[in-house]
Amino acid sequence: MSRIEKRFAELAGKKALIPFITAGDPNPGMTVSLMHGLVDGGADIIELGVPFSDPMADGPVIQRASERALIHKVGLRHVLEMVAEFRRNDDVTPVVLMGYLNPLCAMGYTEFATRAKAAGVDGALTVDCPPEESAELQAALDAEGLDTVFLIAPTTPPSRVAEIAKLARGYVYYVSLKGVTGAGHLDIDDVARKIAALRQQLPLPIGVGFGIRDAETAKAISATADAVVVGSRLVQEIEAATPETAREQLTRLVAELKAAIR
């Protein structure tokens, strides 16, 4: 049983909170501390963003986070080192790397999977790797016992959901709206209908993200989802904080979100 499977089993039907931050933002020396701050606030799983120069699925908030990290030349190898450092004090909280295919391809899928496993990574979500093109990456991840997390959009047809159901491991990430991370206009009722339909095809837990910005929205989404994913709002908190206050403010916000979904 992977850490992700174990965490959902331990929750026993309670809803998971999955916060996202970008590795290296606002500087590389703070990432591990911020990860521990997320756990202090009640994070069940951490999604750690791999900085990328062309984050096509991300809105301006997370784009700026990648830019801040890239100023410090943070790359995939540095991200894996950060996870390894995090694991020295936390061997239970699942960590999923979220990002784009190019850095993984540049490293080589087999080398990435081997290094990720050694560092303590539990899964990977590659935004621009559709299931039809995922065989080589998934084989490398499967060989190391790492989970492959797939995105499902509001426009994903049932036939494609069926294919994702065969391939996905750990959980699936339902994009709650048409747009980029941090976008608005979240239709709670529509999300609920879509999740009900997805449950007919998917045996895995369903996490919902994109557009969840406060405790009220998180609570509403948790009524039907198995997990709530929050990214842009947390990255905004980091952006507005000072290096001295960032961890405390992040922990406080995560605790508010966790209380709302429980």
TrEMBL record:
Reaction equation(s) it catalyzes: (1S,2R)-1-C-(indol-3-yl)glycerol 3-phosphate + L-serine = D-glyceraldehyde 3-phosphate + L-tryptophan + H2O
Pfam family, one: Trp_syntA
Keywords in alphabetical order: Amino-acid biosynthesis, Aromatic amino acid biosynthesis, Lyase, Tryptophan biosynthesis
Gene3D superfamilies, A to Z: Aldolase class I
Domain of life, source organism: Bacteria
GO molecular function ontology, one term from the record: tryptophan synthase activity
Lyase found in the keyword field: yes
E.C. no: 4.2.1.20
Active site (UniProt): 47 (proton acceptor), 58 (proton acceptor)
InterPro entries, per database record: Aldolase_TIM, RibuloseP-bd_barrel, Trp_synthase_alpha_AS, Trp_synthase_suA
Class of this enzyme: lyase
Biological or metabolic pathway of the protein: Amino-acid biosynthesis; L-tryptophan biosynthesis; L-tryptophan from chorismate: step 5/5
GO cellular component term, pick one: cytosol
Purpose of the protein: The alpha subunit is responsible for the aldol cleavage of indoleglycerol phosphate to indole and glyceraldehyde 3-phosphate.
Entry's family note: Belongs to the TrpA family.
Protein name, as recorded: Tryptophan synthase alpha chain
Organism from which the protein derives: Chromobacterium alticapitis
